[in-house]
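Objective 1.3, modelling of assemblies. Example input:
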Amino acid sequence: MAGVQDIRRRIRSVKNTQQVTKAMKMISAVKLRKSQERLVSLRPYATKLLQVVQNVVSQMQQGETTPMTPLIQAFLAPREEKRLRVVVVAGDKGLCGGFNANLLKLADALFRERREEILQLDVVGKRAADWARKQGLKTTREYIATPLPGLAKVANELATEAIRQYVADEIDALYVVYNFFTSPMNQTPTALKVFPMALENRAETDQEEVPYLLEPDPVTVLEALLPQFVETELSRCLLESSASEHAARMSAMDKASTNAAEMIDRLTLHMNKLRQASITNQIIEIVSGANA
Amino acid sequence: MSDQILLEVVTPERRVLSVHVSELQFRTATRGYYGILPGHTPLLTPLGDGLLYYTENGEKRWITVFGGFAEVGPEHVSILARVSETVELLDPGQLNAERLKAEQAVKEAQTPEELEQAQVALETTLIRLQALGLASDH
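Predicted structure (tokens):
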């Protein structure tokens, strides 16, 4: 009978675990919806802004000479990349499948390749901070446990500082390593160069475009446009990562719940068999005792 | 050429507006209010903080716009605002409280940065109140 007791105890413990994973799955689903909503509403803005920047930049590349301020130079004639600033965006918590592991693997690869060139590292998320510590890397800024509405501020701070450093000739490029949110089922770790911008040459487009009037003057417009662009891109990366994290956790917890259900089934079957066997045994004993 | 402009207002947080209008006015960062009629030459300009007026079906309406850009074409205008609200999103009670707080902050500001910050906050509240018709143009 002890065997049955033990199994019963195990079933109970698995059931508890299942309850936890189910709850986590549901929480993640809600959080995913929130992140996704924000991401979806940011996308039209980001696309439009990119279009505008591309239009203006290609117009300036073809058009008359404009005075080069350092910021405009960043987009029209990038410097050679010798000093990088990298932002690694991971999650704060585990229990989300390969979300953090895959991302940090990518970050590892990037650091192995360009160790000397990376001057500064910012981390978003506790897992990224832990990783940096383990690798013995010095971080400039750490953002841990940032709530969803706070992400915009993080993006703003990082963008402002990176642009200031570029203008001051301290860094040559800004990279972000984050999880791209392809779909709730699929997230891809990505290393994105935020700026200088790699604009494809659009001279061949046969679409006839009337050049914009840039008011009050091209330099003012670009100087205002570019920081906004960098900030929006960073903001998008952070949101992509947040949506990815919740999606990853949701599917991981879904799998865990299914696993738990299977395990409970198996254990219950096993327990029933044991109980049946012991009952049969007892009956045999009684019968053979009566016969004797 | 149609006599309508497609006005789209987007912010990082949401798509605020997408309507066909017959004319609109917005406040630029450096050159005051611009009025746009259909068939305007392409234009790109940074925006200031203020109200954006537009005429939809002969009715004059407005929304608040804070910062960002206006991209103008012959048949469309895209406003990429940092922040923007329709009148329905504003809450008069809360704004009046914010206004008092902002005025207090302006009075109590110690450093120039603090003062500037407080003034920006006050300005923002006043523009929102103006959108509700509760404060006069200043």
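The interface with chain B takes residues 38, 41-42, 44-46, 48-49, 52, 56, 152, 210-216, 220-221, 224-225, 228, 232, 235 of chain A (CB under 8 Å).
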